[in-house]
What we know:
It is built from 6 helices and 15 strands. The protein is of the alpha/beta class. It has 2 domains: 5-128 and 209-227, 3-Layer(aba) Sandwich (Rossmann fold), CATH 3.40.50; 137-203, Alpha-Beta Plaits, CATH 3.30.70. The chain is globular, with a radius of gyration of 17 Å. The termini are far apart.
Amino acid sequence: MSLSVVEQKKKNAAEHAVAQITSGMRVGLGTGSTAKFAVMALGRRIKEEGLKVKGVPTSEATRALAVLHGVPLLSFADADRLDLCIDGADEADPGLNLTKGGGGALLREKVVAFVSERFTCVVDDAKLVDKLHAFPLPIEVVPFAEKVVERELVRLGGEPVLRRNGDAPYLTDNGLWILDCRFPPIDDPPMLARALSSIPGIAEHGLFCGLAHALVVGTESGVRVIER
């Protein structure tokens, strides 16, 4: 099946990142449309080259995909540090601040990125923006505190909307809810991240600041790599 132009860009970025993996590595496996290509590429390298790696998935969907493509998995409880995390993003700014969580896995994605020696973010070139804002910021919340969090987000200038799955609230793999919050263009992502982290009831937010070491940007002709 032929890929669309956007899918080919995502595939280019993912395969470039996976090419950096060497035997013996413990690798965080991200969630989403671009990370999917990374898991598939890793499975091919394992099958064709005999690459010896262990993966830690950031979602149940990624776990199933890794099993399907023959990627051996490691329990996160047995992985105090990972060598590399490969994951996508919904948006990325020039400072490598990211918006993540469109796939609903932001909490696990941030934990896995945090314990990785290196976090390589893979995106297509449409995800590059001057300032984060076009994609609503996902915020994972404890259901009991949803209304409190919603009011605090409005005070910060946001417009939160509860993510739904049909008539019911969307449930993350952690059994929590997600507020998708629109903000004006974010001038200072780390400052907003600190403000969000101070609100009780927020389990995690989708601002990833200071975590990505490299951004691999898929283009029609190949990739462009931006290092922090």
